[in-house]
Amino acid sequence: MIAKPKAGKAALQRLLDAEEFIRPWRFKIVSVGDGTVTVMIPLRKALLRPGGIVNGPALMAAADVVLWLAIKARHGIAYDALTSDLNTAFLRPAKNVPVYCTGRILRAGRRRFYGVAECHDKDGHLFSHHTVTYVQPA
Amino acid sequence: MIAKPKAGKAALQRLLDAEEFIRPWRFKIVSVGDGTVTVMIPLRKALLRPGGIVNGPALMAAADVVLWLAIKARHGIAYDALTSDLNTAFLRPAKNVPVYCTGRILRAGRRRFYGVAECHDKDGHLFSHHTVTYVQPA
Amino acid sequence: MIAKPKAGKAALQRLLDAEEFIRPWRFKIVSVGDGTVTVMIPLRKALLRPGGIVNGPALMAAADVVLWLAIKARHGIAYDALTSDLNTAFLRPAKNVPVYCTGRILRAGRRRFYGVAECHDKDGHLFSHHTVTYVQPA
Amino acid sequence: MIAKPKAGKAALQRLLDAEEFIRPWRFKIVSVGDGTVTVMIPLRKALLRPGGIVNGPALMAAADVVLWLAIKARHGIAYDALTSDLNTAFLRPAKNVPVYCTGRILRAGRRRFYGVAECHDKDGHLFSHHTVTYVQPA
């Protein structure tokens, strides 16, 4: 376990802003800790499905990205791993609110990382729960 | 089991094109059958993560949408259900190719629908495998 | 949220000992809290797969049972719900040790319960991580 | 893809009967094909939860074992891999009937195997659907 992140909040935010496949979500990094990252998904009309509910793929994309960032925080921006599994349970609709997503690495093997991500409101009420596995290609 | 879809390819494509939260993916409906829908994700630079790989959330969004469409094909455009669970295994990177996603309902209960979605190339080689549960709110 | 369990440790242990489909695992209840239960799987040769590893179905059975008990602790022994989904990630082999399994309800809807279970050693090192959904039949 | 199994039905049944951690389920191998195995779980009172329903861990154990056997059928009895992920959706209770479980490898990498298992009755009606990942230790 590494106490001091190898990549901090500013560097990770620059990465999100630079990558064309992520930029459209406009994720804002809220905090970076040891093995944990929180991002915010700003509320935008373009994210809402009928009923004013933030669409599910936005939450899954956030879950995917927070673990990706948590791994890079530990190992450095250049370290790349690919998602191998991502399981999602949608627990409560996120209606017309900004969504926060917090990821946390639970188990770091040599090449396999397993963690949990939770999408929640600013008070911590859960919208969705995710488990995510990343694998570093051989 | 209903042999004749209540909503066909043209109506479902209009729905995809009308919904702002889906439109950015530019999914094209390829085919609609009884309990099954295939869409195509056109290859665009904006979808690629480093290495020229179609990003995972695009595949998960496609998996989510094909089951949503398969349910509407059976029950009509106005019938709405919400995703409750979506599990994804990424099996092989989709490198610089259009991706097809085929969803199929395996079990339709009164209010719960369970199905499988597969993202694949035009020859059927798998990129990802998904299980998806939709629930109609009470 | 109910602070005081409707069914306590002794009543839940009697249930485990009385049910023929659970008894063979010989689960011992370690603790019962609000929305959380921990059981112990005693080490027995009959549980070991080649390599001295506690077999996976034993861990999945424990994950299934701790959420079942956590729901009964809250709603009473007579309240019955059925597992609808159980996702498991095996993180590290449990070699020749007793295994503890702790379940916790994360979200209780009217009829749907979602929780997490973790199998771990006595010091909290993870062997497996599970998400479990129970649904009360209509 | 290997057309002829390296381990056939008789050898795989002997393995099931010899392993103490599997034997109690009394799985009977029904058929072995290329990348696919079907087993039968004989109906026994000891497997039933309240309501006469075959208990969930029995179905998960069967899902786990059919993929394990499908890998051994391809690579030989001595080839061992460990389950890394097993996701289960329970779709319909199996009430007082023998259960069949059919597993099929969908993707075989160098060291990672991904497949689907389905528990069903003799006519193919689904009780549960599983996705299973096996990994050969380094």
Gap between N and C termini of chain A, in Å? 22 Å
Low-confidence stretches of chain A: none
Which architecture of chain A does the CATH hierarchy give at level 2? Roll
Largest interface: A-B, 31 and 31 residues
* Rg of chain A, Å, rounded: 14 Å
Strand content of chain A: 35-45%
Shape of chain A: globular
The overall pLDDT of chain A, averaged over residues, is 95
Q: Sheet with the most strands of chain A?
A: 6 strands, antiparallel
Work out the helicity level of chain A: 10-25%
What does this structure look like?
The structure is a homotetramer of 138-residue chains. Chain A has 138 residues and is of the alpha+beta class. The first copy, chain A, has a single domain (9-135), classed as Thiol Ester Dehydrase, Chain A (Roll), CATH 3.10.129. Chain A is 22% helix and 39% strand. Chain A contains two helices and eight strands. In chain A, strands 1-2-6-7-8-5 form a six-stranded antiparallel beta sheet, with helices on one face. In chain A, strands 3-4 form a two-stranded antiparallel ribbon. In chain A, a hairpin with a 3-residue loop joins strand 3 and strand 4. Chain A is globular, with a radius of gyration of 14 Å. The mean pLDDT of chain A is 95.
